[in-house]
Amino acid sequence: MPTTLRRTLSALGVCCSVVTLGACSFWRTPGPQLLVVDKDREPKIDLDTWLDKNAIPADQNIKAVRLGQTDALSYHIVQIRDREQPHVHATHDLSVTLLRGEGMLQNGNASQMMRKGDVAIVPRGMRHFFVNTGSEPAVAFVTFGPPSDGSDIVPATGE
After folding, report:
1. Is the pLDDT score of 1 beyond 80?
2. Cβ–Cβ under 8 Å, residues 82 and 51
3. Do 94 and 76 contact (CB within 8 A), yes or no?
4. Which of 2, 46, 70, 147 suits a disulfide with 74, CB 3.0-4.6 Å?
């Protein structure tokens, strides 16, 4: 193959790669937007931006950050690197929406695989725990009713 043709094809390949990479980032699906009610914060939270500032440290298993609350509930972002210990919430019902990752939720006697977008309800007093089955930390939006300060977590054993 002539040198000029080889250089032209090589340059064309580089251009195609650059255009393809640029198109991928241009059409990248943004992370979820969280619309929250709180007088002290911007009502819209971009999950990607929030996680960049609040990522779970490499040596930490679980990180829970309360975003805010109303009179009836509190809402939190929970990141899980590995797993929770079995526990119950003595005085709170909760809902869990998985925003990133995948894992298994043990809720009472039922095991359910969860992936991004799945929602689970955990009634107060029900034994439960989450096991991350992915390679990255799982991220969930969790609401507690009534508002929770985390003090009602009771370790649970057995089935």
Report:
1. no
2. no
3. no
4. 147
Q: Give yes or no for a contact between 155 and 85, defined as CB atoms under 8 angstroms apart.
A: yes
Please choose, from the candidates 68, 62, 114, 72, the residue with its C-alpha nearest in 3D space to the C-alpha of residue 93.
72
Please say whether the dihedral angle defined by the alpha carbons of residues 49, 54, 56 and 59, taken in this order, is positive or negative.
Answer: positive
Q: How far apart are CA 74 and CA 118, in angstroms?
A: 20
Angle at 145 between CA 140 and CA 151, to 5 degrees: 80
For 136, the token pair is 């990255």
DSSP string over 92-152? -EEEEEEEE-EEEEEETTEEEEEETT-EEEE-TT--EEEEE-SSS-EEEEEEEES---STT
pLDDT tens-digit profile of 91-119? 999 999 999 999 999 999 999 999 999 99
